[in-house]
């Protein structure tokens, strides 16, 4: 499964930022119980994906780049995870040792349907809707 601890931490940091104008790494980490050593790495990935802005200097910190009403769980997970796959056999170029003919087997097709459904669910609701629950 591709929802890792890092993904969980990233969603939590976005949630913390949704409640303030700007937040320092220490503030965000402490509020959401995210280890500091992960916070910098995660925020850098979120910044690269265009989900947060970094502000340098004495009054610096991080802020959301756009409202959480315009973000989904998919956006956050895609920012921090290399591959969003439920199984590696869905990856491009995967060579299945059980299927040398390189045809989609029934298990692969089932995983592909599950993958499509999961990705649709991750895109279905905005983070604002999720955080409001």
What does this protein structure show overall?
This protein is mainly alpha-helical and 133 residues long. It has a single domain (5-132), classed as Winged helix-like DNA-binding domain superfamily/Winged helix DNA-binding domain (Arc Repressor Mutant, subunit A), CATH 1.10.10. It is built from 6 helices and 2 strands. It has helices at residues 5-17, 25-32, 36-48, 73-80, 106-124, 127-132; strands at residues 52-55, 61-64. A hairpin with a 5-residue loop joins strand 1 (52-55) and strand 2. The relative contact order is 0.16.
Name the features:
single chain; 133 residues; mainly alpha; 6 helices
Helix content range of the residues, please? 40-55%
Q: Which strands sit side by side, in order, in the main sheet? A: 1-2
Oligomer: single chain
User: Main β-sheet: number of strands, strand sense, barrel status?
Assistant: 2 strands, antiparallel
The parts where pLDDT drops under 50 for at least 5 residues are none
Count structural domains.
1
Mean pLDDT, all residues:
86
Task: Tell me the name of the CATH homologous superfamily.
Answer: Winged helix-like DNA-binding domain superfamily/Winged helix DNA-binding domain
Note the beta-strand portion: 5-15%
The helix tally amounts to 6
The CATH class is: Mainly Alpha
